[in-house]
Design brief:
Helices cover 79% and strands 1% of the residues. With 305 residues, the protein is mainly alpha-helical. The chain folds into two domains: 2-62; 73-304, Orthogonal Bundle (MetI-like fold), CATH 1.10.3720. A two-stranded antiparallel sheet has the order 1-2. The chain is flat, with a radius of gyration of 28 Å.
Length: 305
């Protein structure tokens, strides 16, 4: 019994010795955390002022009228013209996101299977439009798609059509121009996710008896899901706030929410109505992003990567 007690004494003394050390270590960690917070506080305050203050000002302005507090700015949104504009905005955003995904995923997969030099060449061709102004690219599509443009001239010269196709100043032309501009934003996250997938996974699936289609569907696509979601969110959010391309290629016939905001300010000088439009668009966008994160478990997928 005495030997057992004597043998246990060093362990007890060691545990007692670890207690103060553990407390000191925890205190030191907290001190470092406070120091890091103090170092990042100016940047956090700057970001909060630059990003959050305008949103708060916009939110407050949407409830303000000539006679003080009012809900008139939000009551106007019930008008059918505003609902039609909102529906058109989300239709275009969903369509452009879906088309960019359909075009970008095969291209990202093809680039991931190429050599580094060939993949860089493919990415360079996709990113090349970034070196040109957005306005110039939009006018280029206007030249290509108009009634006497390059595309209609070629089609009529080949005898494929008798009359020029209506490809601009409508929903179709707007979707084409937005897809061209948004495609790189979809391709880059997709390529990063696809390139990170190890080829051993596909070979292991083949060794276990899976066909190439099964291995692609059950292994490759789920592993690339973070890139799909990231690219889709980027394209969708940017498409919701698009202004230049719909204004030019839509020809005034395709009215998006951003154009409605600009008209409220430039034509009617109604900052309250424009603020209400912006607040509604922001709330709807955040709601959709929250719903997507709840449905697909975006945080868990990112952590698993």
């Amino acid at each position: 019994m005495r030997a057992a007690i004597v043998g246990a004494a060093p362990e007890v003394r060691q545990g007692e010795a670890l207690g103060p050390n553990a407390a000191a270590l925890a205190w030191q960690i907290k001190r470092e955390q406070r120091g890091l917070l103090a170092l990042t506080a100016p940047a956090l305050l700057l970001v909060g002022f630059v990003a959050l203050a305008p949103i708060g000002w916009l939110f407050g302005l949407s409830f303000w009228g000539n006679d003080g507090f009012t809900l008139l700015n939000y009551e106007r949104l019930i008008h059918p013209s505003y609902r039609l504009t909102l529906i058109t905005t989300f239709q275009l955003a969903f369509l452009v996101t879906a088309v960019c995904l359909a075009l970008g995923y095969p291209l990202a997969y093809l680039a991931s299977q190429m050599s580094s030099r060939a993949a860089n060449l493919v990415l360079l061709c996709v990113l090349f439009p970034f070196w040109t102004s957005l306005l110039v690219r939009t006018y280029a599509w206007l030249v290509l798609l108009q009634r006497r443009g390059v595309l209609n001239t070629w089609l009529q010269g080949l005898g494929l059509i008798e009359e020029p196709l209506r490809l601009v100043h409508n929903f179709t032309g707007t979707a084409i121009g937005m897809t061209h501009i948004m495609l790189p934003f979809m391709l880059l996250p997709l390529y990063a996710a696809v390139k990170a997938i190890r080829p051993d996974y596909m070979r292991a699936a083949a060794n276990l008896g899976a066909s190439p289609a099964q291995a692609f569907r059950q292994i490759f696509v789920p592993l690339s899901l973070p890139g799909i979601i990231a690219g889709s969110i980027i394209v969708f959010v940017l498409s919701l706030g698009f202004y230049v391309t719909p204004a030019l290629l839509g020809g005034g016939r395709v009215m998006m929410w951003a154009m409605q905001i600009e008209r409220s300010i430039a034509v009617y000088s109604d900052w309250g109505a424009a603020s209400a439009l912006g607040v509604v668009l922001l709330v709807l966008t955040l709601g959709i992003l929250w719903l997507v994160s709840r449905l697909v478990g975006l945080g868990r997928m990112i952590e698993s990567r």
